Amino acid sequence: MSNPPAPEPQDHRPPADWSPAPLAASDDASYATRGTPAPQTSMSPGTNQLPKVEVEQFAPTRSPWPILAGVAVALIAALIFYSTTLRPSAPSSSASTAPSASQSGQSTSGTPELHQPFVAPGGDPAGSWEVVRQEWDVSGLEVLIRIKVTTGTLPYTLNVIDSSGTVRTSAQGSSRTPALDFQPVSEGQQVEGWVRFGAERGESTIALLIGRTEQLSALPISG
Q1: What pLDDT, on the 0 to 100 scale, is given for residue 14?
Q2: Which class for 24: exposed (0-12), middle (13-18), buried (19 or more C-beta within 10 A)?
Q3: How far apart are CA 144 and CA 129, in angstroms?
Q4: Where does the pLDDT of residue 95 fall: very low under 50, low under 70, confident under 90, or very high at 90 and above?
């Protein structure tokens, strides 16, 4: 018995006048984007590496307190150095100011020596004296005299000698206060007072005499 013949293969190609049906708009969009790879960001040359990380970025912030403490210590040390070394020491409170000149008869123990010293032969009496003030007027000269005796007792008088050294004018009582009374000055006493000389104005010298004859010292007077 013979086998039946094999069926001929069918042709599945579409006919020549066939065209596919159009797709919907939603189908076109989904199909167009289907399988499209995501765009990749382009990297410029030299930027294909990660940013460099420094260790200092993670270091804790420094506190300013150590610096401020160091400045404060330096200032305190400078103040201590200035107060103990450079600052001038204040005058001692124990130092006393020289007492003012006293009037006649008042004790002057501890007062400083006056301008001009004097001493008699043998050392007794001795002391110092000075012209405190002088004033010329039309009829003569007014002088404020201060005398201090440190040894013995001084009986004294005063003269004015002119520039030639020949004319001597004895002291007179003054109307000013205090006025010298020409009483002897004892040891440890100081006297101060005005005297008057009826002398002509000019360069002169005042002489201090013990008694009325012996000159102990002299001071110049401007005319």
Answers
A1: 63
A2: exposed
A3: 11
A4: very low
Displacement of CA 84 from its chain's centroid (Å):
15
Indicate whether 11 pLDDT > 60. no
* Dihedral angle sign, alpha carbons of residues 111, 117, 118, 123: positive
User: Model pTM?
Assistant: 0.50
DSSP states along 24-88: PHHHHHHHHHTTPPPP-----TT--SPPP--GGGGSPPPPSHHHHHHHHHHHHHHHHHIIIIISP
Distance CA 203, CA 161 (A): 9
84-88, 101-105, 210-214: which is most confident: 210-214
Tell which wins on pLDDT, 15 or 51: 15
Provide the 8-state DSSP code for 138. T
What is the distance between the alpha carbons of residues 195 and 144, in angstroms, rounded to a whole number?
A: 6
